[in-house]
């Protein structure tokens, strides 16, 4: 049996024999930072989960190599997804290192041995620490990319086309949050470009139900309050059918089937004309 | 941070003071100008209700911080006649004063959270919160 | 507090630049109707560019002013309503569909001229 292996066995033996004591010491340490770490979150990290965390660590110290078993990864994934701060886990790991070393120093008198075991424990815990940080940053990267996509979907640009005429093409479904953004962009754009007419193009809106219609009517009403005219364009046959069968009244606003027809209407309202050079 | 400011509402001019206080606090907390207008308008509606129906009462405005989520809470308190039919006053267009009947349901739409408690002959407490986005 | 009303040919121009309390609003309603009566004005532009809040009471007064002026033979155009104000009005459920609007004072006057002179 090599020196290294003997050392490993010694540590494993010591840890296994004193599991209860280690766990209790560790839970005490965790309590010290627990409250501070969870301030500002709605999380309740139960003591049960703390205990689970600790037994995972013990298990992996026994395994000696964290890549041998995926359960630790799963555990980190799970708790980080709940929004647990990364520092909670890293502090937990540091606390685990502390309690193991404290016990060691208390029970072992041979200084040489203590130093060797110290290095050994570092060698075991560091990969776990790296793993946690890695997992956490991956989760963040995913979240950011999901949000970026959502943001793009949400965007509702107002495009000035001709003098005093702007178009807002809407693509994708419209919920209450997006409706608010549409309204704000629309109104700010009307002021910015001094648009007398704005065309809202709903060709790309898959479903127009009562709620979507309600939001559009509100937007058109607000545009009118500002002193501009809103024309709803891109009304496909199936949309016209749903609007009427749902009993939604859009008769107060000018509507056109296509953007082109709406644009002709807008030019008329603003006293402009397109002249062909033919 | 958690300093509550209150305005006594006894006359029409107090309505203006209440909404000015609300606008300043909303601005300080970092609300955008649309939400500032929403908060100011909600305060105006609540203060006017106190003036019209209870005669006197107060509007209290406080910044709140719930687990890192920031917002502004408006509380309207009075010892007036109370509201007999809460469901009715929450209907659009219902009015007993000849107004537009937009008041309370309007406040609910302007704000994110809304609650009302009223006991006939004892008084009314309305609480409305807007969260910082 | 009184809101000044200017006369320009056969139009009246009002720019509201004060925080309106209920009394000021009602006083304004009365002053405007008297002025329409005195001058025989055919059109009125009320510019709200500097108004940062319209609650249901002020909205009601404005709507009433428009209808009353119409009864006296004067068309009213509201101009310069700010986006935040428009959004709040819509939240309140007030769309003022019967009221004529324009982006600014200049367009408001153009609109009146178009409506009155054809």
From TrEMBL, chain B:
Stretches that traverse the bilayer: none
Name of the molecule in the record: Serine/threonine-protein kinase RsbT
A Pfam family reported for this protein in Swiss-Prot or TrEMBL: HATPase_c
UniProt keyword annotations, A-Z: Kinase, Transferase
Naturally occurring in which organism (per UniProt): Fictibacillus halophilus
EC number assigned by the record: 2.7.11.1
CDD domains (alphabetical): HATPase_RsbT-like
MF terms (GO), sorted A to Z: protein serine/threonine kinase activity
Alphabetical list of InterPro entries matching this protein: HATPase_C_sf, HATPase_dom
Gene3D superfamilies: Histidine kinase-like ATPase, C-terminal domain
Entry keyword Cytoplasm: no
TrEMBL record, chain C:
Origin superkingdom: Bacteria
CDD domains: STAS_RsbR_RsbS_like
STAS domain ranges (all copies): 1-112
Pfam family, one: STAS
PROSITE patterns, per the entry: STAS (PS50801)
PANTHER family: RSBT ANTAGONIST PROTEIN RSBS (PTHR33745:SF1), RSBT ANTAGONIST PROTEIN RSBS-RELATED (PTHR33745)
Protein name: STAS domain-containing protein
Organism: Fictibacillus norfolkensis
């Amino acid at each position: 049996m090599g020196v290294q292996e003997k050392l490993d066995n010694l540590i494993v033996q010591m840890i296994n024999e004193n599991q209860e004591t280690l766990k209790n010491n560790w839970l005490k340490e965790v309590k010290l930072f627990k409250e501070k770490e969870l301030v500002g979150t709605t999380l309740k990290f139960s003591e049960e989960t703390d205990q689970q965390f600790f037994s995972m660590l013990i298990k992996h110290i026994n395994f000696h190599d964290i890549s041998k078993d995926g359960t630790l990864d799963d555990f980190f994934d799970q708790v980080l997804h709940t929004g647990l701060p990364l520092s909670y886990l890293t502090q937990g790991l540091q606390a685990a290192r502390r309690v193991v070393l404290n016990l060691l120093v208390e029970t072992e008198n041979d200084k040489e041995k203590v130093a060797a075991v110290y290095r050994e424990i570092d060698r075991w815990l560091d990969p776990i620490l790296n793993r946690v940080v890695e997992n956490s940053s991956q989760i963040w990267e995913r979240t950011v990319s999901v949000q970026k996509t959502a943001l793009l979907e949400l965007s509702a640009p107002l495009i000035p086309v001709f003098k005093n005429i702007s178009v807002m093409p809407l693509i994708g479904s419209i919920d209450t949050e997006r409706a608010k953004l549409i309204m704000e962009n629309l109104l700010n754009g009307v002021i910015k470009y001094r648009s007398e007419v704005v065309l809202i193009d709903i060709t790309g809106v898959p479903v127009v139900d009562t709620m979507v219609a309600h939001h559009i009517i509100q937007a058109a009403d607000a545009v009118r309050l500002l002193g501009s005219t809103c024309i709803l364009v891109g009304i496909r046959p199936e949309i016209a059918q749903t609007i009427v069968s749902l009993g939604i009244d859009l008769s107060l606003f000018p509507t056109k089937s296509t953007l082109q027809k709406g644009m002709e209407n807008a030019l008329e309202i603003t006293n402009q004309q397109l002249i062909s050079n033919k | 941070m958690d300093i509550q400011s209150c305005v006594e509402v006894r006359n029409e001019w107090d309505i203006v003071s209440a909404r000015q206080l609300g606008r300043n606090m909303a601005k300080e907390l970092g609300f955008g100008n649309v939400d500032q207008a929403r908060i100011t308008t909600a305060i105006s509606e609540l203060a006017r209700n106190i003036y019209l129906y209870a005669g006197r009462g107060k509007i209290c405005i406080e910044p709140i911080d719930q687990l890192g989520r920031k917002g502004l809470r408006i509380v309207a308190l009075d010892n007036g006649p109370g509201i007999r039919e809460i469901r009715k006053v929450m209907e659009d267009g219902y009015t007993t004063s000849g107004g537009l009947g937009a008041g309370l349901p309007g406040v609910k739409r302007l704000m994110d959270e809304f609650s009302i408690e009223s006991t006939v002959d004892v008084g009314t407490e309305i609480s409305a919160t807007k969260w910082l986005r | 507090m009184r809101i000044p009303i200017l006369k320009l040919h056969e139009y009246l121009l009002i720019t509201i630049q004060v925080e309106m309390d209920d009394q000021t609003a009602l006083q304004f309603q009365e002053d405007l109707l008297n002025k329409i009566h005195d001058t025989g004005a055919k059109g009125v532009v009320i510019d709200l560019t500097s108004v940062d809040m319209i609650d249901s009471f002020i909205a009601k007064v404005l709507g009433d002013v428009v209808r009353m002026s119409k009864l006296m033979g004067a068309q009213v155009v509201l101009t310069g309503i700010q986006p935040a104000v428009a959004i709040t009005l819509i939240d309140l459920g007030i769309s003022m569909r019967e009221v004529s609007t324009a982006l600014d004072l200049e367009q408001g006057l153009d609109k009146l001229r178009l409506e009155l002179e054809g």
